[in-house]
């Protein structure tokens, strides 16, 4: 059915309104009685019933738990309601432990009132019988004259007062005059409306008697006792005795009435006052600023004090004892007995005044701000009880005064005085007895309605609850749904709060409003709809793990209604000329949550649900929601739907940040390991490779010289050696390049990479011919498929990060090969624009499969290339009808991450450039542009001194510290290539003593050689083994920092300290530069670039204008003079080769470790020394014996038992001894 309300289906007029918790519903008019009830009426009735039934059982304490309120529909039989629901609702109005104590106090006092009522009738009837038995018969006489008429008038007045109070309570008279009159208008119990009048009266009487509280029964009982007493005195003979002392006539039945009535009335005055001590402390704390600490601590006590009820019984007993002694006055045997009774009676009566003053001082004039409902009730009851004390004490004081006047006055009055009239005393007693009984009953009724009437108390709390629920219903930002089953196997009726209209934002005429404005517009509007039973049947028949969707036909009807505003049924809101109706897509999404809420189990289950629908503009709306279900009973529940979309987004963002942080941390650890361990190993291997190359060249040169020119050609064996050496060098450099690119990629992804610029030939870097080892370009690169064009040719030299440029070009080529024509030509154009100072690299490939679809996508495809995780070919292949060949392409694309273009763009941004791609009809052009200036215009202008003519001062010393023997020997050659003489080179790190004493040595040395420059190079990670065989790592940069801190400023100016490390991330370099003067990357040492690497660092430390060098020293010798030929100096091989003494020293240390009993425990130390031994052996030129010995060392990795390790060591030791001896 449509959600819109047709014009011809106007709602029926209001005939009668009933409200419970703010719900309003409409009855059908009489003329529509024969028609089928409207849908909305049925829904409202179904929604109204459980809440009204909850109201019907909303007793707030033990005394009122059995007093039902009427159901809202007299003809409807409602199922039993769960009383725990009402208790939970009332618990919201009573949030403290004081509420339970309050209810317990009321129920206890009310129970005592009922017991006192029985005691009243028993004592009065017993006293009357005793008086008739023990009083002489001659003293039992009927009253006459004025006494009889006074008794009759007193009975009549009290009876009229009694009827005026009891009739409204029984439900007769004007409707609405009391809660019971409202109750009487309904057929309690849900019987047929045609039941006879007698049964209706009986039910009214039962309900009325159940509604009487103990204090109301007590007040009415006192009236009954007074009426019966006056009736006996008016129409029957009554005992009349003469007081032996005063000589006055005493009507004994009057005192028989006063004794139990005075006792009971006093106890009711005390019982109506429920204000206990801690309430007083709380209230007085608001009015008195200087409360003591004891009162503040006493305030924290909960419940009435221990003597709370005892004081009430004692005061009631005191007043009853005073009246009982008055009854005994005529029966006293003598004067002194009478006088003692009189004194005790007066003393007991006078306790009224201090008790009244005490309670008046304890009750403050006003109620404190923020008091609870219970405190307010107790305060009001105390004020009412205090007023009752005033009335009773005043009337009783007058009665006591008249007693003495009427008893003593006749002795001193004249004969014709009214005081001598025997009926005067009777008239006064009747008058004030009527006055006290009428005023007392009026006040008792006020106390009854204020605190003891269960209906009044329930109505007050339900009214507060209704206001609270109305405020929550209308102002809540979360949609609230009240759902009720319409039958045993039927659907459900659901009422939605106004917050429903804010779901997904406004639409149509509301799209210009914010959520808050939409909520204010619909603040008094609610949605009422019916769900058919088919949706629940489908859910029960289907799989429990699958959730059935709500179809449009499952929502039978949708209407606007109201919750608590008294405006009646409302139609749709007219806004900007458009009638705003509920959005059916959103309504179906909420209905699915309601259906799911009926399926869940548990006391207060919470489940998550996705609210999704599509609007008219094809815009999908998705809201992540969390629903909390509270069951009222088995046929009704409340669902609160909370929008947690922002929470989900925050969670996803936090998860993504955590994932990226974890990935960054893991990548940083992997980079550190790659740079330090792998790179160090490769650098050592490359050093050994260069040593072997140099040795081989020296050997060939000597062979050529020894041939005296007869055979200048190379033998096949020599050719194979050269080829193998070239292949070895190529493999080592390619492996080093691979791991450096891998580490660089991780830093690029996390935006922590900083480029390392150097002078590069762009064409050589891109083509791959810039390697340090010699091999044919044609053999490693197919120029036919990957041609390279330079404009102009040759290109000038630029200042770039060579690794970054090479990696960027490789990624572009990779994308061209994957998505271009299979086996097609990929052209690279390198164009330099001198005017714009711009370098442009174009990679052009032929169109591949689905190229036409990429062209059709236009800019969308171009943007998708550079989006992270995007694969533009994936959707194209899925949508296309391709053959088996495309199936393989699908599998290939499915394994791709789709981040190639994204990484390329990051590379471009690091180089301060930009990249783009164009899908043209006949080709695809990937363009990379970066600002560039030739080396001669940029860096050379910044360096006044030509690097080619740069050399170090003659007084420069070379200090280096490294824990690797290979690196120590390479550093010797580094300093020699830099032009430092061998006698000024000091290498440290051979043992832990040299590392730990390095700082002291450098500081002392610079103090002794003032004015001489020192070039200090320190390895970052220095591993040492102490005397306890414990491994530790010392930071070389920290050693340099310690040296700089200990030097004087005039000493430190002659020091150039560099940190050399394979860890060259941006964060590490920043640390190195903060501790030292610069950073020196670990890389293969080349003769031609040592001074080129040192020159920028030296100029940065010593600008040309500050360098204090002799002019003749600058030009005394050329750069080539710093190098000696291989014939005049020891070869590189001899420089780094280990001597037999070094090897035997390590063998002796290992022999001591293997002869001990703790070989396994010392395995870490043994492993380190075996590793060092293997490095020393690889520097020797022995051949197969070295290879066999190294293999034996490698075999130690798989043996961990003591016996196997010792056995292996004996074999290795024999091999080394044979090797050294040869």
UniProtKB/TrEMBL annotation:
The chain crosses the membrane at residues 116-135, 150-172, 212-236, 335-351, 388-405. SUPFAM superfamilies: ATPase domain of HSP90 chaperone/DNA topoisomerase II/histidine kinase. It comes from the Eukaryota. This is Uncharacterized protein. InterPro entries: HATPase_C_sf. Residues 1-39 are annotated as: Disordered. Keywords: Membrane, Transmembrane, Transmembrane helix.
């Amino acid at each position: 059915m449509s959600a819109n309300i047709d014009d011809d289906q106007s709602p029926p007029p209001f005939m009668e309104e009933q409200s419970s918790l703010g719900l309003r519903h409409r009855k059908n008019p009489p003329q529509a009685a024969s028609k089928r009830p409207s849908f909305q009426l049925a829904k409202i009735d179904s929604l109204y019933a459980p809440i009204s039934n909850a109201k019907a059982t909303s007793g707030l304490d033990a005394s009122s738990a059995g007093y039902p309120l009427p159901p809202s529909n007299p003809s409807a039989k409602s199922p039993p309601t769960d009383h725990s629901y009402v208790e939970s609702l009332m618990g919201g109005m009573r949030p403290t432990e004081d509420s339970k104590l309050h209810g317990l106090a009321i129920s206890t006092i009310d129970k005592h009132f009922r017991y006192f009522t029985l005691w009243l009738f028993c004592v009065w009837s017993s006293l009357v019988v005793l008086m008739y038995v023990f009083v002489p018969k001659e003293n039992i006489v009927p009253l006459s004259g004025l006494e009889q008429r006074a008794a009759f008038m007193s009975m009549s007045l009290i009876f009229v007062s009694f009827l005026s109070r009891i009739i409204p309570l029984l439900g007769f008279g004007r409707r609405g005059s009391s809660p019971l009159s409202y109750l009487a208008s309904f057929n309690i119990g849900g019987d047929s409306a045609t039941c006879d009048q007698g049964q209706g009266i009986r039910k009214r009487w039962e309900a009325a008697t159940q509604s009487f509280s103990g204090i109301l029964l007590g007040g009415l009982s006192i009236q009954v006792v007074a009426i019966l007493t006056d009736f006996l005195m008016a129409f029957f003979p009554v005992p009349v005795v003469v007081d032996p002392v005063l000589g006055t006539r005493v009507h004994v039945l009057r005192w028989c009435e006063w004794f139990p009535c005075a006792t009971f009335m006093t106890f009711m005055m005390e019982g109506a006052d429920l204000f206990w001590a801690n309430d007083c402390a709380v209230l007085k704390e608001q009015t008195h600023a200087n409360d003591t600490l004891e009162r503040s601590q006493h305030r924290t006590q909960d419940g009435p004090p221990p003597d709370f009820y005892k004081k009430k019984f004692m005061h009631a007993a005191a007043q009853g004892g005073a009246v009982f002694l008055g009854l005994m006055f005529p029966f006293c045997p003598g004067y002194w007995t009478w006088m003692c009774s009189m004194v005790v009676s007066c003393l007991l009566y006078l306790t009224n005044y201090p008790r009244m003053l005490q309670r008046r001082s304890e009750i403050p004039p006003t109620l404190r701000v923020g008091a609870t409902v219970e405190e307010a009730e107790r305060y009001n009851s105390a004020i009412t009880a205090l007023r009752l004390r005033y009335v009773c004490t005043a009337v009783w004081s007058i009665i006591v005064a008249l007693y003495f006047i009427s008893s003593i006055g006749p002795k001193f009055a004249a004969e014709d005085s009214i005081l001598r009239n025997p009926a005067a005393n009777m008239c006064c007693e009747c008058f004030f007895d009527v006055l006290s009984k009428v005023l007392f009953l009026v006040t008792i009724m006020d106390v009854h309605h204020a605190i003891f009437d269960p209906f009044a108390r329930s109505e007050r709390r339900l009214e507060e609850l209704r206001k609270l629920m109305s405020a929550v219903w209308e102002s809540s930002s979360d949609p609230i749904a009240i759902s009720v089953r319409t039958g045993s196997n039927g659907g459900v009726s659901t009422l939605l709060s106004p917050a429903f209209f804010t779901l997904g934002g406004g639409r149509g005429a509301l799209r210009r409003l914010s959520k808050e404005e939409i909520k204010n517009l619909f603040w008094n509007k609610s949605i009422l709809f019916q769900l058919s039973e088919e949706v629940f049947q489908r859910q029960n028949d289907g799989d429990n793990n699958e959730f059935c969707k709500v179809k449009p036909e499952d929502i039978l009807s949708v209407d606007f209604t109201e919750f608590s505003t008294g405006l009646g049924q409302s139609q749709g809101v007219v806004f900007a000329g458009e009638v705003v109706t509920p959005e059916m897509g959103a309504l179906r999404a909420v209905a699915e949550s309601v259906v799911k809420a009926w399926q869940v189990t548990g006391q207060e289950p919470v489940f998550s649900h996705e609210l999704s629908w599509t609007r008219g503009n094809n815009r999908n709306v998705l809201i992540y929601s969390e629903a909390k279900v509270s069951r009222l009973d088995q046929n009704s529940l409340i669902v609160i739907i909370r929008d947690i979309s922002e929470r989900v987004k925050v969670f996803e963002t936090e998860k993504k940040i955590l994932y990226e942080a974890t990935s960054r941390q893991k990548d940083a650890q992997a980079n550190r390991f790659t740079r330090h361990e792998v790179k160090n190993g490769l650098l050592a291997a490359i050093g050994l490779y260069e040593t072997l190359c140099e040795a081989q060249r020296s050997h060939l040169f000597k062979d050529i010289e020894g041939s005296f020119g007869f055979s200048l050609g190379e033998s096949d064996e020599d050719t194979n050696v050269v080829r193998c050496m070239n292949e070895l060098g190529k493999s080592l450099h390619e492996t080093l390049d691979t791991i450096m690119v891998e580490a660089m990629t991780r830093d690029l992804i996390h935006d922590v990479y900083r480029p390392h610029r150097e002078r590069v030939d762009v064409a050589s870097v891109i083509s791959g011919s810039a390697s340090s080892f010699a091999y044919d370009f044609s053999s490693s690169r197919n120029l036919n498929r990957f041609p390279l064009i330079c404009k102009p040719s040759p290109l000038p030299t630029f200042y770039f990060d060579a690794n970054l440029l090479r990696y960027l070009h490789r990624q572009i080529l990779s994308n061209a090969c994957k998505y271009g024509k299979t086996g097609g030509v990929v052209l690279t154009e390198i164009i330099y624009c001198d005017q714009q100072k711009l370098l442009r690299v174009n990679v052009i490939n032929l169109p591949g499969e689905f190229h036409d679809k990429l062209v059709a996508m236009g800019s969308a495809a171009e943007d998708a290339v550079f989006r992270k995780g995007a694969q533009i070919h994936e959707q194209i292949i899925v949508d296309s009808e391709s053959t088996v060949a495309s199936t393989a392409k699908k599998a290939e694309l499915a394994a791709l991450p789709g981040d190639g273009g994204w990484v390329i763009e990051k590379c471009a941004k690091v180089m301060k450039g930009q990249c783009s791609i164009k899908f043209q009809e006949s080709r695809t052009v990937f363009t990379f542009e970066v600002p560039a200036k030739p080396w001669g215009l940029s860096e050379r202008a910044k360096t006044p001194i030509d690097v080619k003519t740069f050399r170090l001062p003659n007084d420069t010393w070379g200090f280096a510290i490294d824990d690797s023997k290979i690196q120590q020997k390479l550093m010797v050659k580094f300093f020699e290539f830099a032009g430092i003489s061998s006698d000024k080179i000091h290498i440290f790190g051979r043992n832990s003593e040299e590392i730990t004493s390095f700082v002291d040595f450098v500081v002392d040395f610079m103090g002794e050689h003032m004015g001489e420059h020192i070039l200090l190079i320190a390895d970052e990670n220095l591993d040492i083994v102490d005397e306890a065989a414990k491994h530790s790592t010392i930071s070389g940069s920290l050693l340099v920092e310690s040296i700089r801190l200990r030097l004087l400023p005039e000493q430190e100016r002659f020091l150039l300290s560099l940190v050399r490390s394979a860890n060259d991330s941006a964060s590490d370099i920043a640390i190195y530069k903060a501790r030292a003067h610069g950073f020196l990357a670990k890389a293969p040492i080349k003769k031609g670039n040592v001074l080129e690497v040192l020159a920028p660092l030296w100029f940065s430390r010593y600008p040309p204008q500050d360098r204090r060098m002799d002019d003749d020293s600058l030009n005394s010798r050329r750069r080539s003079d710093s190098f000696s030929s291989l014939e005049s100096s020891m070869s590189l091989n001899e420089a780094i080769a280990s001597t037999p003494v070094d090897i035997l020293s390590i063998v002796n240390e290992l022999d001591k470790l293997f002869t001990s009993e703790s070989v396994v425990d010392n395995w870490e130390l043994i492993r380190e020394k075996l590793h060092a031994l293997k490095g020393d052996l690889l520097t020797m030129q022995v051949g197969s014996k070295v290879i066999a010995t190294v293999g034996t060392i490698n075999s130690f990795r798989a043996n961990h038992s003591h016996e196997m390790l010792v056995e292996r060591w004996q074999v290795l030791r024999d091999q080394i001894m044979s090797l050294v001896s040869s």
